[in-house]
Amino acid sequence: MESYFSNQIVECILDKREVNANLTHHINDFVDHRKDSKALSDTEAYLTIKGNKIPKRTTKGWYLCAELSNGKTEWMRLNIAKDASPIKAVRYAVANKIADEPAFRWWVTYVLEEEERL
User: At what angle are helices 86-95 and 102-117 packed, to 10 degrees?
Assistant: First the structure.
């Protein structure tokens, strides 16, 4: 999973484009977010295995609103948004102080570190 995610980050850095070919238009930026009742709470965010707390790797219940290159906006599930444009999704999460939410915390730090390393 890490090498796949690293490849997405590299492509975004080098090409300055989103890597999801299913999007008709490029994502200019993320402009809003929301979560529904399916989003994990802090008490549900971890699995405990042999005394170790391991974050659950899920983005369920979260949505980001993308401003597209055609001027329109589109709500997309977080898993789609982070795959389409991981760097922009991370920057939005940090700027809007949601990076510590369970759906973000397991991957945001990794993207920031990988972007810096690359």
Answer: 120
Q: Are 96 and 33 in contact (CB under 8 A)?
A: yes
pTM beyond 0.70: the answer is yes
Tens digits of per-residue pLDDT, 61-81? 999 999 998 899 999 999 999
Q: Which residues is 112 bridged to in the sheet?
A: none
Separation between Cα atoms, residue 52 and residue 9, nearest integer Å = 29
What SS3 string covers 57-107? Answer: CCCCCEEEEEEECCCCEEEEEHHHHHHHCHHHHHHHHHHCCCCCCHHHHHH
Tell me if residue 24 falls in helix, strand or coil: coil
Q: Do 60 and 37 touch, CB atoms closer than 8 A?
A: no
Average pLDDT over residues 16-43: 78
